[in-house]
Amino acid sequence: MSLSSICYIIKETGRNLVYNTWMTLASVSTVAISMFVLSFFLVLTVNMNHVTRVLQSQVEMRVFINPHVPRTQEMTLLQESRHWPGVKKVQFFTKQEAADALKKEFPNQKDLLTLISKSNPLFDGYNVYTKNPNQIPALASRFRKQHIVHNVIYEGQVVSRLSRLSVVLKWAGWGIEGLLGLATLFIIVNTIRLAVFARRREVSVMKLVGATDWFIRWPFVLEGLTLGLAGAIVADLVVGQGYHWLLVEASSALPFWPMATLHQVMQKTVDFTLGGGLLVGGLASMVALRRFLRV
Amino acid sequence: MIRFENVSKRYANGHYGVIDINLEIRRGEFLFLVGPSGAGKSSLIRLLYREDVPTHGEIYLDEFRLSQLRKRQVPRLRRQLGVVFQDGKLLSNRTVYQNVAFAMEVVGASSHDIHKRVPQVLELVGLSKRRNNYPHQLSGGEQQRVGIARALVNNPVYIIADEPTGNLDPETSFGIIKLLNEINRRGATIIMATHAKDIVNQMHKRVVAVENGRIVRDEARGVYGYEP
Fold first, then answer.
1. Residue B135 lies in a domain
2. Residues 6+ apart with CB under 8 A from A240
3. Is B102–A204 a contact, with Cβ atoms under 8 angstroms apart?
4. Cα nearest neighbour of B79 on chain A
């Protein structure tokens, strides 16, 4: 295709978009809303994944050793367990270190401090990090079977509940997005249908003088893609600004809550919304041309 | 060369547009297609530019076999033809120049070629001074000249005109015919369906008369032959 043909097609696309100003605005808005909702779920998912990752990188399992077990036995199990499948890292701590950590964590609990200072009731133990949170229960029971182990504590439920919730969220998100996508498709199809109708004389002349089918179709296809892309960009701008604001607010209101960074969120959002916008726009032009443009 | 071989066209409603047409048109000819309204002139012309496909027989146009032509090959055929209609089919939101240039733009001509060719064609049809006017600012004859310029601009081998003078007074009609004759002199083949008796009788060109879908007369230097 020659440069002048490309110029012509772009010019005609612009003509179509400007000619039907209201439909153009309506289409861009619906795409934007649809993509905004998609982004909302994406932001939520990215953040849940972020929290899950943060939790996973924290201590996952604490193994406590019976009192009065000799240090050598504790060290043997330490060395052994480091080679168990699924184990990422094992750290030994003495009951003295455990007490110090407690003191640091709760400096204002006077009763607690006197209690553990007088006679330390805590145990020696290990902090165990796993490669995959799913392996926690299996590893916990393996530790429990060791005779020197007193008990095992882990908070794996939080992680697994979080990941289950994010699956539910994902499906809910796709469900809602499917419906919104259909609505968006419908609006763009009608916008292009109006453009086809407005240009029926041009189209008949084009056919008469021997323009190829695709030459006739391109402006309408490009129109659909432009509508989808424009809507996605609007949604991205809103999401970017909105999330930036949220980060600022959250940093003062929930200082310890781990939020995903703007970069992490936007990376995913931009990919999905631009892809989604182009997809729905392109699909809509195809549907409209098949139904309303007899070339 | 155009050749109709036993061509019939039966429409979906059972009505026949043309029946058993055999016709040969050589390059460079000027041919009038005459006959009463509804006789099949327009059907024949629609078959020529492949708006319709024959239900029987075959139409050959140079290297094309029209009933075998695939949909995506139709544009290639149409670029060999320039079609002129009674109502001109001009685009009302474009100027004279833009209407003619449009026909070149949409077949992918370069803007350099367009700038060179369009003024030439407007000069030929006598509309150089009207180039920036819109169709509604033109007389009927001028509008028809724009239609002819548009049909001509891509240098087609055949000009097919379906009652191009149908809406015009006799004097303006003669102007249009003179123009088509000039175009014919420059090498294009002209096929023109018409009701204009005076014109046909005065031009002494080939006349093909159609009645009830059949060719009833084909004379090399013919006359109109019907009383209006």
1. yes
2. A262, A266, A269
3. no
4. A210
